[in-house]
Design brief:
homodimer; about 120 residues; mainly alpha; 3-stranded antiparallel beta sheet; 7 helices; 3 strands
Chain lengths: ~120, ~120
């Protein structure tokens, strides 16, 4: 084995920053939580206003908000009687970076497909 | 409420493509599964060779592989007696696209920070 994934260092590397990344990716693996984030992307809002369009109890809704808070994706602040939710998208950056490392694979496949069609076209002339 | 997130269409939109996205993001929310993907990014490999550096039973390892298979991130093929695992990173594309929609927020914050430091520097001259 070569490269950065030698077996002896594997378990150590696996642990590195695992918790944060795990929490963020688990948080976005639920459609309700993604919809909350997309709502908050339009601006901070009162928690009950955000909850309103969702067909679930406020208790159920608040559980989703807590998962987002623990992942660092949402901030809850209190202004007098109001509880406001605000998006905090920074933790998504690391996930995006990790995903973009795999972009070379899509690109390589697309290149092979393109070559295939170019050759096919040349043959059929 | 304005824009693409009108309450009446919310639940419908939430359901749209939810399952696929959910499976992919849940699959990458585990450090062992990410390590399997990173190993396979170096090339297809025999399943027992991939399992070897992980300090877990083969049964436990295979459970992780199945989660990756169901998300469409890994393919298992049989060559005679050998079972080979191969990376299939295409499903990550949708997740990357979704994440990059939030890039504007990091950029906006970075711009504000830069402006703050530029002003601060001007003042301190």
């Amino acid at each position: 084995m070569t490269g950065r994934f030698r077996p002896t260092t594997l378990n150590h590397m696996v642990q590195y920053r695992a918790n944060k990344f795990d929490r963020v990716t688990a948080a976005i693996s639920d459609p309700t939580r993604r919809a909350i984030m997309e709502r908050l992307a339009r601006g901070a809002a009162n928690i009950s206003d955000v909850a309103e369009p969702f067909s679930m109890s406020l208790t159920g809704f608040c559980k989703h908000v807590r998962v987002l808070e623990r992942a660092g994706l949402v901030r809850r602040t209190r202004h007098g009687r109001n509880k406001t939710l605000e998006l905090s998208p920074e933790p998504l950056h690391d996930v995006a970076q990790w995903l973009l490392r795999y972009e070379q694979f899509w690109n390589a496949r697309l290149d092979r497909l393109e070559q295939f069609f170019v050759k096919h076209k040349e043959k059929s002339r």
